[in-house]
Write a structure and sequence with these properties.
Helix content: 10-25%
Shape: globular
CATH superfamily: HesB-like domain
Number of strands: 9
Strand content: 35-45%
CATH class: Mainly Beta
Number of helices: 2
Structural class: alpha+beta
Number of domains: 1
Length: 116
């Protein structure tokens, strides 16, 4: 019997992203988290959505914490984001969260939509 390798659902939150999320959450009510989800739409088929939520995580959420930054990702979105890295970039083009997603086969120029 051979070992079957399933794709990793581990999602990494970089230090830069955690720092920016912590800064955003510091201005919000205690217990607020950033929810990242995937929905249909965008110019490439799927798009990332970012919402500040005050609810407790859902039972099936992946909860990422780093340096007082908390991120929730629901199980359906995790199917599209498994193995991804969430980063924050501040360059000449501007500031934004960027998700380096190994499941995406194409993405748009704005970096918020992708296809699998």
């Amino acid at each position: 019997m051979s070992d079957v390798q399933l794709p990793s659902h581990e999602v990494v939150l970089t230090e830069r992203a955690a720092k920016r999320i912590r800064r955003i959450l510091s201005k919000e009510e205690a217990g607020t988290a950033l929810r990242i989800s995937v929905s249909g739409g965008g110019c490439s088929g799927f798009q990332y959505e970012y919402d500040l939520v005050k609810d407790a995580p859902n039972e099936d959420d992946l909860v990422l914490t780093r340096d007082d930054a908390t991120v929730y990702i629901d199980s359906l979105s995790l199917e599209f984001m498994g193995g991804a890295e969430i980063d924050f970039v501040d360059d000449l083009i501007g500031q934004s969260f960027q998700i380096k997603n190994p499941n995406a086969v194409a993405s748009c120029g704005c970096g918020t939509s992708f296809s699998v």
